[in-house]
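[Discussion] Sanity-checking designs against the backbone

I'm trying to build intuition for which residues belong where. Below is a structure token string of 127 positions. I'd appreciate it if someone posts a full sequence so I can compare it with mine line by line.
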């Protein structure tokens, strides 16, 4: 009997209550900037996205914060240099780039596992 929230509350959306994964609010004071709220996420995704956004030359600023340790959402602010690139476009590109890097990592890992198994099978067979 603790006051700890259920483990699934940290990552499963409450779809019955209409909770969405990402919301965006455009900043009215600073041009080409806005705030994303990433629901049911933590520092893992926040830091990955911030790092990937900062690799984009059209992004002037990218930062995030978690308002409270027991609140499972990330507030991410993004400002772009303008032109044809909006904060929404930049975040979309960052997500696509991270997906591509993850696919590359999985492919490399699977190749290494296959190579290890082949080498060990040859050693077991005395070849």
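Best answer:
Here's mine. Compare freely.
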């Amino acid at each position: 009997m603790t006051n700890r929230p259920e483990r699934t509350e940290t990552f499963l959306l409450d779809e019955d209550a209409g909770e969405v994964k990402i919301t965006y609010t455009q900043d009215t004071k600073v041009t080409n900037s806005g705030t994303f709220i990433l629901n049911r996420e933590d520092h893992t995704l926040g830091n990955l996205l911030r790092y990937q956004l900062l690799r984009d030359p059209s992004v002037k600023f990218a930062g995030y914060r978690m308002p409270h340790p027991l609140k499972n959402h990330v507030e991410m602010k993004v400002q772009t240099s303008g032109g044809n690139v909006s904060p929404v476009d930049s975040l979309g590109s960052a997500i696509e780039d991270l997906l591509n890097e993850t696919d590359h990592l999985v492919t490399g890992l699977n190749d290494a596992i296959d190579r290890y198994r082949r080498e060990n099978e040859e050693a077991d067979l005395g070849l």
